[in-house]
Hints:
Elements: H1 3-28, H2 35-52, H3 63-68, H4 72-93, H5 98-119, H6 127-143
Amino acid sequence: MNKPMFLFYFSITLAICSSALYHFVAKSTPSNVNFTVSLLVTYAVAFAVTLLTFFFFPAKNGITAELKQLNWASIGLAVAIVGIEFGFLLVYRSGWNLGIAAVLTNVVASLILLPVAIFLFKDKISWVNIAGIFVCLAGLIMLNWKR
């Protein structure tokens, strides 16, 4: 398998597996622990793991040169990540089901991002994609259907 195809499949597999692990672990976080303490430990470990990735993805021009190339997106990503972490800790502590909360959040976020993808990033969608959007909407209705 050539490198671009490996990266194509590896990257989505990593994202899927990490997302599933994320929700399992977030749901398993003790409800009596302080959010901030939990996230401090989470981010300390994440920092250490990220440092280890330099062995696989070294900064060829040095860290200083790489830092100079950053823009507002790194700060925005940090704010978004903290919001996701706090949000899901609250979601699971308030009693949401593991599968429903994850699906609902991802589908609604995707629907919110759709106009951004089309108008800002010029992504193209097909009629099949539009049909998929309606399937997602039907899925949201079914997920929230009262039994």
